[in-house]
Amino acid sequence: MQSFVYQCPTEMVFGKDAELKTAEEIKKYGGSRVLILYGGGSAERSGLIDRIGSVLQRGGLAFKKMGGVHPNPRLSFAREACACAQAFSADFVLAVGGGSVIDTAKAVAIGLAHPGKDIWDFWTRKEPVTGAYPVGVVLTIPAAGSESSDSAVLTDEESKRKRGLNTDFNRPRFAVLNPELTYTLPRFQLSCGITDMLMHTLDRYFTIDRNNQLTDELAEAVMRVIIRNGRVAHCDQTNYDAMSELMWCGSISHNNLTGLGNEKDFSVHQLGHELSAMFDVAHGASLSAVWDSWANYVMPSAPERFARYAEKVWGVSGGDTAEKAKSGIMLTVRFFRSLDMPTCFSELRGVGIQPDDVLHKLASNCMYDGARTVGTFCKLDIPAAYRIYQNAN
Ligand code: NZQ
Ligand code: ZN
């Protein structure tokens, strides 16, 4: 087990009507003037924004609402939201939505703590993050895990670069998790969310570290629960118990618990981010579209790890190591298909089969034009990424 420092300070407020506690949570963390951020309209249509507004009003909090966060959230909008928060003298940012809204809220919170600085400079590492205003979350989609993660991902739509920023300043103070708020999700978004939360543990599970018993077995349990309840929720989206399990798994899967003491890999995320940056595809779909190709490319470097995954997560018992490893990959791909998720480019809405020069460009962008490699389980460089994109094409 590698050395680690672990903190997961986000307070989780789980259950039916949990959003009614939002005002008291905000006050607990010192907020009095709140910028409420939300997305393209689902939270308005469901009445959630009005409900939150009433709760804050009853709690004596001043607030300003700002909708319009786009999935794969954009830098230009985050800059506007930051200016809006400054003009309102906000001291607290409340995200009502999913990963895109939460990540925008995190950007605003960092911007508020560094007046006069351009927020993109933090994402490009030109400026160090030295603080952030407090962020709270009312979660509406179990997926990205941003409600408990130290990460925030923005896209600079001009340069078509999608970049993540990891810092403990990104941890929300609290997250309200009411599974009933997910009932209005489009089925495709739910499938994207299930894929993403599974991938947050997969991208940690495929690691060079071995014999890390608690972390491995926690990861395997989280993956089994996601798969079992993902199947139920895909057929019955208003199943409270299944949605509860998924909502909790989504948070656990990305708060680093399922990777403690292991070297993280996260290559599938990096490969997927380039697809989203170039084609604006949904995050979960970008991951399932490359996973099969990635797994087949890296599996020969550690077939025994894939065999263990097949045994513990999918219950595969027959065959030798190589056969088990292949079965685990095949069953994962079959699971994505059962959720109607793409498993290659031709199935990926808005992408399709791409010419060779685009595959080279994706590979080069992913490696910052050769300035980095990605992954630790199997280090990927430009030729490796090109081969993975080519096999996914
Ligand atoms: O915008 P609205 O109208 O609200 O619709 C959203 C959006 O179209 C809809 N939606 C959300 N809750 C709903 C709902 N529709 C109806 N009813 C509800 N209850 O779902 C769509 C997707 O929303 P989004 O916030 O984009 O989803 P998700 O949570 O999957 O977030 C994806 C973003 O998070 C980033 C991704 O890269 C992507 O930009 N990630 C953030 C991470 C982090 N900060 O730790 C880690 C992840 O790996 C990921 O990279
Ligand atoms: Zn993700």
TrEMBL record:
The Enzyme Commission number assigned here is 1.1.1.-
Keywords, ordered alphabetically: Oxidoreductase
Which EC class does it fall in?
A: oxidoreductase
Q: Which residues form the Fe-containing alcohol dehydrogenase-like C-terminal domain?
A: 195-373
GO molecular function terms attached to this record: alcohol dehydrogenase (NADP+) activity; butanol dehydrogenase (NAD+) activity; metal ion binding; methylglyoxal reductase (NADPH) (acetol producing) activity
Pfam families given for it? ADH_Fe_C (PF25137), Fe-ADH (PF00465)
Q: Where is the Alcohol dehydrogenase iron-type/glycerol dehydrogenase GldA domain?
A: 9-179
Recorded hits in InterPro entries, A to Z, give: ADH_Fe/GldA, ADH_Fe_C, BDH-like
Single GO cellular component annotation? Answer: cytosol
| Name this polypeptide is given | Iron-containing alcohol dehydrogenase
